[in-house]
Amino acid sequence: MFEWVPVIYYTNIYYITLFIVVAIIFTKCYITPIHSVDNKRFTNTIGLGFLVFVIVYMGLRPVNGVFIDMTMYDYNFRRFQQDGLKYINSTDDLMFNYFTYVSSKIMTASFYFLICSILYIVPLYLISKKWFKNYWFYSFLALVASFSFWSYGVNGIRNGIATSMFLLAVSRERLGWKLFWLIVAVNFHKTVLLPSVAFFVACICPQPKYFLFFWLLCIPMSLLLGNNIQVLFAGVMNDTRAVDYLTNRNINGDQFSSTGFRWDFLIYSGCAVFAGWYYLYRLNYDDKFYRILYNTYLFSNAFWILVIKANFSNRFAYLSWFLMAIIIFYPIIKHLVLPFQHRVIGYLLFAYFAFTFFMNVIIAN
């Protein structure tokens, strides 16, 4: 465990390390051709080293309230050790609860959090390898450089794991494996049902223009009817935590508690919307799977816009934000769509991480 690292600086050290890696890749993108053997060897080597670092550094962090919900997970782990299956008093996130129960019987809490880190991060590596082959590290780096990545690895742990399993599901080619991993994801955190439904809707109707229209329509709807929509969703949801987030009850002591229409985060979400639109309609990028992913993002993000005024609406925003890196980077890593593309990847990575660094290091401190 990294107890020698002062907990007050623990998160910032991760972001500073990430800044160094992004800066190195940015420089490499500028001076080295993307298809060169040297570039492939370099990115693969630094990528594997960074993969191990992120897993170990995140997984072996100290149990401390600075990571907010981590202390709750530690408490639940110890209750399972003491009370066994009797501690499971509902069917909420049943598979995650059984995972925690089994873990409590065969390992320490420290090792349990390391396994959680592996379950969260390794699927991101696997999907990057499957989709982008030799260029997997660009995708993986974008994913771990995302605004909410660290938070959902150390705070909203089961939500983070569930979204990673969702990505693993949609990356599978066989329907049976897709359904298996989607079921696992939903049973780790029920809120992943939203992007799961969005994915199947997108498969049935893979036309982005309809989803774009719906996304845009949700903005005036939220401005005019936001509070009423929150009450409506709270009335039909069978998830206590989701209702609490919508009705402004701070059940977890979250630090993110700003209410009102968040234009700043709408603009942030809109970056992925614009990127997808630009690829599909200005560059005429033709990839059916990308259209499905883009529509999944639009559908899920539109739901967040409808409840954007709720306290802790970031919990709903993450149900689309975890897709942002893929939406922005998939076409320029997967296919040749722009001149000087390696440099463009570097610029985008740097800009994408700049927002993360600004929000989580400069503003947060």
Structural summary, described in words:
The structure is a single chain. The protein is mainly α and 365 residues long. It has one domain. Helices cover 74% and strands 0% of the residues. The chain contains 17 helices and no strands. It is globular and about 60 Å long.
Short description:
This protein is mostly helical. The protein has helices at residues 7-31, 37-59, 70-83, 94-106, 109-132, 136-144, 151-154, 157-171, 175-188, 193-204, 208-236, 240-246, 263-282, 288-306, 314-321, 324-334, 341-363.
Q: Terminal Cα separation, in Å?
A: 25 Å
**Range of helix content:** over 70%
Mean pLDDT: 88
Number of domains: 1
Task: Output the number of helix runs.
Answer: 17
Report the sheet-strand fraction: under 5%
For the sheet with most strands, the description reads: none
The number of E-state strands comes to 0
What is the molecular shape?
Answer: globular
- The gyration radius over C-alpha positions equals 20 Å
